């Protein structure tokens, strides 16, 4: 459902989501399928799967930080990430829900 059109536009967006996540230090705190400092990206994807506006919401969180959604540890604002990179990362995270869809009901987003 996530439209990748905006994320695909700039030439720099040739990198995959994973490459970008590594380059922007996301993987210092996150892993794809296991909890590290922050929640696993697949688990985040499950929570937001199918929810309206999830990509914009997560893009905002990536740049602005998050606290209290997943536990006591806050995520600092990632100011090194541009708006279009944040959209690309958000789309990539959301795409991971399909990869690990085991039929478990996604927790309610709100
Ligand atoms: C310093 C450690 C740290 C770094 C670096 C970090 N995160 Fe996080 N991230 C966290 C923590 C901790 C949480 C859970 C915050 C909470 O409970 O609200 C989180 C939550 C998230 C969420 C879910 C937000 C929500 O509201 O549900 C997303 C998406 C996310 N991170 C993506 C990223 C991306 C993409 C990057 C790289 C640009 C990144 N993170 C870098 C620690 C980090």
TrEMBL record:
SUPFAM superfamilies: Cytochrome c (SSF46626). The keyword Metal-binding applies. Keywords: Electron transport, Heme, Iron, Metal-binding, Transport. Heme c binds at residues 26, 30, 75. Binds 1 heme c group covalently per subunit. It holds the Pfam family Cytochrom_C. The keyword Zinc-finger does not apply. Residues 12-97 form the Cytochrome c domain. GO terms for molecular function: electron transfer activity; heme binding; iron ion binding. It comes from the Bacteria. InterPro entries: Cyt_c-like_dom, Cyt_c-like_dom_sf, Cyt_c_ID. This is C-type cytochrome. It comes from Allopusillimonas soli. The lineage of its organism: Bacteria, Pseudomonadati, Pseudomonadota, Betaproteobacteria, Burkholderiales.
